[in-house]
Amino acid sequence: MTSWVIVFLVLAGGLFAFKIVYVLATAGALPVTRGALYVSTSRIRIRAFLEAVPMSSDQVLYDLGCGDGRVLRAAGRRYGVKAEGWDVNVLAYLNARLRCFFRPGLRVRFGDFRAVDLGGADVVFCYLFPDVMKDLAAKLERELTPGARVISANFPLPGWSPDRVIRPEPARHADPIFIYRAPEAAADRS
Hints:
By secondary structure, the protein is of the alpha/beta class. It has a single domain, classed as Vaccinia Virus protein VP39 (Rossmann fold), CATH 3.40.50. The chain has a 7-stranded mixed sheet, covered by helices on one side. Strand 2, helix 4 and strand 3 form a beta-alpha-beta unit. Helix 2 packs across helix 3.
């Protein structure tokens, strides 16, 4: 067999093996994500949200469903914030861990953000499926400090009124980014 055929077979076999691992990782995350797949947030949209939501280096950013960690890295680079992300897709988690490994102040965790207290965040970023948003809205209302900011890409938080909605240019990136401030907790309202 000629060497180019062997190279082709090795590359095709590697690609096939990667696809199998990708499918298994996605299938493993589906019960938690309720059908949502990993989709990266574009750099244009990240830049737009970071311009609209300035932070100081003493603040903490949480990214719920952090994917490859690009929001964590961009916020750390721009503002020097401490940033923490969670993901349940093992490939996305490993990718984020690798990309954030040597970046001080950035932390990536494998697991469901619904199982942790989000009260330590000054800013929360999420790009999640709409069917998760209702439960998330209630969790954020219970756990966040009043005034903490929440940024949701594409999908609104049910029952919350955004302070601002931005639509980055160009048009292909113009899906809404909702910017909220956490209200007083429901238990404190009476």
